[in-house]
């Protein structure tokens, strides 16, 4: 079963990863305001996988289990998998833009914009 954004946040709460920001331990990654834009962007990726119009790009079938999984978590098995992952880049840009809108300050928006530009350069995609 594919996770949703809410499932993703719940999984972060359940696994309780040990994370520090500026030397301070974070009690809950899923609920930390400084991490909210990134968590929201990844969450959008999970939610997009549930939309029929995005299913081809956002999901993949695992050869080992036969299960349908989020392409973000899928281990590429073919050149087609890699091409679909590159096409997902446009979806990722949309997620970064949405996360930037959710960010409460200019520093977070600038950070997310830099990350989107880095991803575009890595994928040799046009930068807007």
Characterization of this structure:
With 128 residues, the protein is mainly alpha-helical. It has a single domain (5-122), classed as 4-hydroxybutyryl-coa dehydratase, domain 1, CATH 1.10.3140.10. The chain is built from five helices and four strands. The protein has a two-stranded antiparallel ribbon with strand order 1-2. A hairpin with a 6-residue loop joins strand 3 and strand 4. Helix 1 packs across helix 2, helix 2 crosses helix 4 (79-102) and helix 4 (79-102) packs antiparallel against helix 5 (106-122). The longest helix has 24 residues, at 79-102.
Low-confidence runs: none
- Listing every helix as H and every strand as E from the N terminus to the C terminus, the arrangement reads HEEHHEEHH
Give the total of domains. Answer: 1
Approximately what portion of the residues adopt beta-strand conformation?
Answer: 5-15%
How many helices? The count is 5
Structural class: mainly alpha
How are the SSEs ordered, and which strands pair?
Elements: H1 5-15, E1 20-21, E2 24-25, H2 36-48, H3 55-58, E3 59-61, E4 68-70, H4 79-102, H5 106-122
Antiparallel strand pairs: 1-2, 3-4
Helix pairs in contact: 1-2, 2-4, 4-5
């Amino acid at each position: 079963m594919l996770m949703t954004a809410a499932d993703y946040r719940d999984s972060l709460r359940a696994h309780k990863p040990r994370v520090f920001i500026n030397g301070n331990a974070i009690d809950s990654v899923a609920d930390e305001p400084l991490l909210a834009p990134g968590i929201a962007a990844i969450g959008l990726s999970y939610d997009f996988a549930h939309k029929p119009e995005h299913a081809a790009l956002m999901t993949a079938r695992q050869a080992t289990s036969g299960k349908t999984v989020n392409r973000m978590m899928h281990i590429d098995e073919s050149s087609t998998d890699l091409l679909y992952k590159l096409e997902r880049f446009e979806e990722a840009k949309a997620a970064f833009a949405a996360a930037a809108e959710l960010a409460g300050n200019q520093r977070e928006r600038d950070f997310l914009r830099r990350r989107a530009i880095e991803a575009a350069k890595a994928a040799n995609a046009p930068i807007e």
